């Protein structure tokens, strides 16, 4: 009996996890006991007239950690033993309960699944809810010691107020223009390069492609000092070229699209050639239609990350005429400085206005993005 | 019809070079200039640049901010690993067995929304939520009997607040990637194992997980490399690296040296060290990680 019970418990799979935690708990308890012993030894060696502060200094880490390992270890040990007991009970009862009860238990599990999923979603989306709600509150309501979950009084005035204080329309315009041109450049240059890498064969191809792969690894913060110097020599600080030109090529775009182009069979290209298509024609009439989902997905991702990009626009655009929205929002805090806590409703109103376009775009194109992304994951 | 020319000659270069040249100009050339700047003493505007050898580097290693940034860079990577892999994996396993596809898509969309938002905007929402007085999180903590924490002003919590904010944004994207690859595991394998009487736990570890290790490995690499870049914005908006450099990291330090102290030498030296560190981390992850990855057919 004992043997089969143990066997059943091991089959349940949770067993391995419980054993892992058991080992962990034992290690913790061991550490705790060792720490406690060391603590007592050191205490007994110390002179008796020391002040509390000096004792703490002498003990260092020990003073802080005294017993806490032991406590955590004990709790973990009890939890693990409880887990084992539950597991033994369920394994014991496994074939003693009726089929009906089993079905009900299964249903309970599904319900639990939904509940956990719902809770996770609520936590994840709470900041967005909070942003919208706060943007409609009055300044007085923001100062309540206990925040209200729903505005007592809707203050739509916050939105016009923000528009008066910062040139949000201008920010939006700048973001649209720079993002559009960045995306245009990345798509055109990316498609050409991806075609060259996927279907061409030339000397130095591997070296050049290594350059693309390496570019994936270098964040802008590593290279921005020289780029900034370069751009300022060109007189492009506070200008659209300054915002756009350094971002015209995306290694990510080339990399992803090359994979997609590679998967298009050579015979399609041959068929296109028979029909008298030139190279540009081949790209436009054969490769692009055949890789449309990937192309659209990466383009959208490019657009979204361009829209949200913060670091470079912040460096290059120091005047309101060229600020983008992601940077512009940070201006709200500075403009209203001095009354920081009281004007979060206006900052939140600005935030809501800044995210509306991109969230709308996402929701409209959501199908493309989601399927494209999970496909990318499968490769 | 022959594929004329594309296998040789200069035509392929015409397609590749328009992308490669800007890359050389705006990425690889700056990387070299960066190295040159790191041995010079300069402040962006002065006409003279003096060669000072490795002084920038030695001065870096004596600064407390640098050692703090170095340690914090590691803390950020370790702190965000659960958000990048464990939690999204748990969530995608949780909804894997939900049969209603529409509901599943809706769920994934909802989780993905934080990734779509401008991070700078999201950071402001979090500042407002983390405010110790009148903030919603402080109220929540108080209601369960804990003392409210001034997250962003306390050197013990500032870094972890940023980890939470970044993790919140990262979660949905990684869930989508992991969920996508979990769905691509052939159902025949699972059915066969179910018939053999394997528990769902065992099925996960023996069948599903080994088959998605390429994705997990990919996320491991990208997390190790990109976290430092990813947390720049929350650091900049939430704490400015403070209090007392408790939440700074190497990349934020580069920015501070360049645009607060106007010291291009220190900034470039830090940038170079950061870059080398990324290369080492990537090499290590590949060395220890790749042999555990099962690439399918």
Question: Mind explaining what this structure looks like?
Answer:
- The complex is a heterodimer of chains A (379) and B (297).
- Chain A is mainly alpha-helical and 379 residues long.
- Chain A has two domains: 2-96; 161-378, MetI-like (MetI-like fold, Orthogonal Bundle), CATH 1.10.3720.10.
- Chain A is built from 19 helices and no strands.
- The model of chain A has no long low-confidence stretch (mean pLDDT 80).
- Chain B is built from twelve helices and two strands; from the N terminus they run αββααααααααααα.
- In chain B, α3 (64-94) runs parallel beside α7 and α7 (158-183) packs across α9 (200-230).
- The radius of gyration of chain B is 24 Å and the shape is globular.
- Chain B is mostly helical and 297 residues long.
- Chain B has a single domain (57-292), classed as Orthogonal Bundle (MetI-like fold).
- The relative contact order of chain B is 0.13.
Short description:
The complex is a heterodimer of chains A (379) and B (297). Chain A has 379 residues and is mostly helical.
Question: What CATH first level of the largest domain in chain A would be assigned?
Answer: Mainly Alpha
Question: Which H/E pattern describes the elements of chain A?
Answer: HHHHHHHHHHHHHHHHHHH
Overall number of structural domains of chain A: 2
In one word, what is the shape of chain A? extended
Radius of gyration of chain B: 24 Å
Average pLDDT level of chain B:
82
Q: Which CATH-level-2 architecture of the largest domain in chain A?
A: Orthogonal Bundle
* Strand percentage of chain B: under 5%
Going by CATH, the homologous superfamily of the largest domain in chain A would be MetI-like
Layout of helices and strands, plus pairs?
The complex is a heterodimer of chains A (379) and B (297).
Chain A: H1 2-11, H2 14-45, H3 52-59, H4 61-65, H5 68-93, H6 99-135, H7 139-142, H8 158-165, H9 168-199, H10 205-217, H11 220-233, H12 240-244, H13 251-262, H14 266-274, H15 279-290, H16 292-308, H17 311-316, H18 325-335, H19 344-378
Helix pairs in contact in A: 1-5, 2-5, 6-19, 8-19, 9-13, 9-16, 10-13, 13-16, 14-15, 16-19, 18-19
Chain B: H1 11-37, E1 40-41, E2 50-51, H2 55-62, H3 64-94, H4 101-116, H5 119-130, H6 136-143, H7 158-183, H8 187-195, H9 200-230, H10 232-239, H11 250-259, H12 264-289
Antiparallel strand pairs in B: 1-2
